[in-house]
Amino acid sequence: MDLISRITDQFEQSIATKRASLEVLAAPLAHAVDVMTGSLMNNGKILACGNGGSAADAQHFAAELVNRFEMERPPLAAIALTTDSSTITSIANDYAYDQIFAKQVAALGHPGDVLLAISTSGNSPNVIEAMKVAHEREMTVIALTGKSGGRMAELLGPEDVHLCVPAERTARIQEVHLLILHCLCDGIDCLLLGVE
Ligand SMILES: O=C(CO)[C@@H](O)[C@H](O)[C@H](O)[C@H](O)COP(=O)(O)O
Ligand SMILES: [Zn+2]
Questions:
Q1: Which residues form the SIS domain (predicted)?
Q2: Quick one: which ligand is closest to 145's CA?
Q3: ipTM, 2 dp
């Protein structure tokens, strides 16, 4: 096996996916920055969820808001719903795995808050259930998906923002999701600090 050639292919595919994503995602991403910043400036908060690599992404994003990204600014209100093993295991044990995020959204979400819902397939049932509760709570959903957007795409309302990466491979989609999250952090910091 020619590992160098495989590695080269992966890099090339990742670069191509990022270029294709820029074409379709720049405008909705700018809108997502506006939505998140508006919520934070109105005492709202961001709840983030996802499975596997997307759980790591949810945590990564929440840490960058609560602590810092690249600029000095006050801490921002964000919670990853993927981190409390007691809460997650008890909900999964007593109810169902698809409720692990939804119950947390019901407990913590208020009108004006944002749910950052991350799923490369757009079909993870626990993320979908969280979206339904977020809508009941009058929260805005920002969905990070890929492929066709799956069932999440069908659930989004007019106030929500869909950032669907135009790719089929989970790894490529996740690589763009991370870039999207850093663009969100950068955009929020710029708006909050009035950077030209
Ligand atoms: O990171 C990876 C694959 O790159 C995996 O851990 C992946 O996130 C998991 O299989 C997830 O369960 C996939 O869920 P989703 O993205 O379809 O919502
Ligand atoms: Zn992964």
A1: 36-196
A2: 1
A3: 0.98
Provide the b/e sequence for 63-87 (b: ≥16 CB within 10 Å). ebbeeebeeeeeebbbbbbbeeeee
Rounded CA separation 61/83 (Å): 13
- Tally of domains in the chain: 1
Residue 77: CATH number of its domain = 3.40.50.10490
Stated pTM of the model: 0.98
| Residue-wise pLDDT tens digits, 132-168 | 999 999 999 999 999 999 999 999 999 999 999 999 9
The range of the structural domain enclosing residue 159 comes to: 3-193
Q: Separation of 43 CA from ligand 1 center, angstroms? A: 32
Q: What is the pLDDT of residues 8-43, one digit of tens each?
A: 999 999 999 999 999 999 999 999 999 999 999 999
Q: Which residues line ligand 1 (CB under 6 A)?
A: 51-54, 119-121, 123-124, 170-171, 174
pLDDT grade, residue 1 (50/70/90)? Answer: confident
Atom of ligand 1 nearest to the CA of 127: 18
